[in-house]
What we know:
By secondary structure, the chain is α/β, with parallel strands linked by helices. The chain is built from 9 helices and 11 strands. It folds into 2 domains: 2-116, 3-Layer(aba) Sandwich (Rossmann fold), CATH 3.40.50.720; 121-229, Alpha-Beta Plaits, CATH 3.30.70. It is elongated, with a radius of gyration of 22 Å. It starts with a strand and ends with a helix. 26% of the residues are buried.
Amino acid sequence: xxxxxxGLGTFGAKTAIRLYEKGADVLAIDIDEDLVEKIKDRxxxxxxxxxTDERSLRSVSISDVDVAVVAIGDDIQMSIxxxxxxxxxxxxxxxxRATSALxxxxxxxxxxxxxxxxxxxxxxxxxxxxxxxxxxxxxxFAAGYSIVEIKMGKxxxxxxxxxxxxxQNYSLNIVALQKRIPYIDEDGRAAWKVEIxxxxxxxxxxxxxxxxxxxxxxxxxxKLFMDLQDN
Length: 231
């Protein structure tokens, strides 16, 4: 997959690096040469150009990318112009960062495929960490629904999936269990390895170190979180 990331501030640079680490062919773009230089060894290609200039964008074959991420946040006008130019040059999927409701509305109007609201999403993450410290990762995949990686605490330790009654009491589905398995390495030392059970059975037991992957609605997760706070 070819991905262009435009705007190499903290958010854009992190996005570009993680995409590259996950195997994407990443073109990182910013008008600031220092930011481009800083990231050059951590992406496929980095270039300093003005993304509002059509000739410059054509010179890096921007129309060939599968996805473009407009990570510009502090310059709304530049963000809007970048999305406009990408759509003009035929980029099929444009994901853009929005910093306000008005910014989001304009980006959709000019053709952005998806919107990222970093500040809002970070607020949600921080709130979740305060309310639900058991949660390790949370992925929102639709309005009001999430996939959550969680340590269940003492309340569920030693119980089978049937005994836990998670589905009956919370209307949440367990889709995977991640377990730490002890073993002896080649040097005769005690070590641990991680095993993923992506098809858990009713009689599988939830151990204290297990990470349980659940899917369901925010309302039902909040009910579970409230119960876990008491343990």
